[in-house]
Amino acid sequence: MGEYLTDLHERRAAAVFELLNTIPGEYASREGLQETPGRVARMYDEIFGGYDMSPEAILSKTFRDEEHKEMVIVKDIDFFSHCEHHMVPFIGKVHIAYIPNGNLVGLSKLARLVECYARRLQIQERMTSQIADAIEEQLKPIGVMVVIKAEHMCMAMRGVKKPGANTITSAVRGVFQDNTNVARAEFLSLIDLK
Fold this sequence. Notes:
Distance between the termini: 46 Å
Strand order of the largest sheet: 5-2-3-6-7
Number of strands: 7
CATH architecture of the largest domain: 2-Layer Sandwich
Shape: elongated
Largest sheet: 5 strands, mixed
């Protein structure tokens, strides 16, 4: 395994070295850039570490037979991800609500679940659904709702160049799917998407 990782790092570093040499006026051998290929190769282990995480394992430890059947909300979970179309960051907050049906999970596990999916090449819409689906599949709640608000650097620094524009996505499962549901309205009012 160590040999594979070494090879992977060398391939990444070589690719970054070549990419740097394609930027007009830059040379990967320039003093300030000499260690950049190795740094980027190592950084990829961290920013794309979600591929090594298992949502099932993250949500496997639950507190069963709990009588709590009221909404549980974890809001303002910061995340950083990378758009799979341009490989630039999108940054924002995830808000999660679920209504338990006998299974509670440690609150930090929900933040870990966000990391699991955020630290991959992503699109925001898919990530929103993946988080909701994992909670639904593993915890079997009465309902789950996930809302993500993020700024995409592919819109801010290139293309239409609109910094400050935010994208909001949601995924609703179970009782939250009913638009007249009080829990849905309560959750949306509590996360206060300003």
